[in-house]
Amino acid sequence: MQTVLFNSTIFGPIHSRRLGSSLGINLSPNDGKICSFDCLYCEAGFNAQGPGTTGFPHRGDVSSKLEQKLIEMKQNGTPLDVITFSGNGEPTLHPDFGGIIDDTIALRDKYFPNVKISVLTNSTRLHDPKVSDALRKVDNNIMKLDSAIDATMRLIDRPNAPAFTTESVIDEIAKFGRQGIVQTMMLRGSHNGRHIDNTTDSEVEALIAAYRKINPREVMLYSIDRKTPEESLVKVEKEELQAIAERMRAAGITVQVS
């Protein structure tokens, strides 16, 4: 089974093809995965590997480790574009997510006031007011929408909650409007004998309709860049991504391809 876990709470900085020089914050365990999706393409592997033994990092530990790293980077003159919440699972599942966001904003303002704060979320917790209120405080709310067709979303993202639907999540993302960025993974392949392809005309048209309803600041369109736990998945090459992006731009949507 493919498992590439971040073994620390603070990691990097690494170069992100979408965000630049990024210092990562992992709010999941350092030796396992906790996520409300079980995506076929997740580089951290499937949820079946288990949550590990370390549990969620404590809020105070996240703050102290982040401050230590920011001091070190400032002293060394290390460039930084963004502080990004990602890691071994869904960051908004952390019980102190809102408080950690507040701590991170304060530390950013103290040491790197020009740096952006981004959260990569799978959008499953947007209905929780505490989560949505915290997300509204950061610079980049990057919210997942891999398909606007329910059956395809369930094939690719495999949500834990049976009640989770594309209709409901599109409504939740739309509440952010221009405060939000939508991230969509384009891919093809199969899983357990079922064909997967969210690049078809019907899929793209459904995404365009969803984006128009959401009216995000921009859409981040990308494809597989690393080995995936479902090994049949196929990368959509840049030229095809650009062609799909042009169809979306023709509908008035701002799209970044990476």
Radius of gyration: 18 Å
Form type: globular
Number of helices: 7
Task: Please write the CATH class name.
Answer: Alpha Beta
Structurally, how many domains make up the residues?
Answer: 1
CATH fold label: TIM Barrel
DSSP strand content: 15-25%
User: How many β-strands, per DSSP?
Assistant: 10
The CATH architecture assignment turns out to be Alpha-Beta Barrel
Share of helical residues: 25-40%
**Poorly predicted parts:** none
Termini Cα gap: 27 Å
- The CATH superfamily is known as Aldolase class I
Biggest β-sheet strands, sense, barrel: 10 strands, mixed
Order of helices and strands: EEHEHEHEHHEEHEEHE
Label the structural class. Answer: alpha/beta
Mean pLDDT score, rounded? 94
Please tell me about this protein's structure.
The chain has seven helices and ten strands. It is α/β, with parallel strands linked by helices and 258 residues long. Strands 1, 2, 3, 4, 5, 6, 7, 8, 9 and 10 form a ten-stranded mixed β-sheet that branches. The protein is globular, with a radius of gyration of 18 Å. The protein starts with 9 loop residues before the first strand and ends with a strand. The mean pLDDT is 94.
Notable traits:
258 residues, alpha/beta, TIM Barrel, ten-stranded mixed beta sheet
Blueprint (SSEs and pairs):
Layout: E1 10-16, E2 20-26, H1 59-76, E3 82-86, H2 97-111, E4 116-121, H3 129-135, E5 140-144, H4 150-157, H5 166-174, E6 180-191, E7 194-197, H6 201-214, E8 218-223, E9 234-235, H7 238-250, E10 255-257
Parallel strand pairs: 2-3, 3-4, 4-5, 5-6, 6-8, 8-10
Antiparallel strand pairs: 1-2, 6-7, 6-9
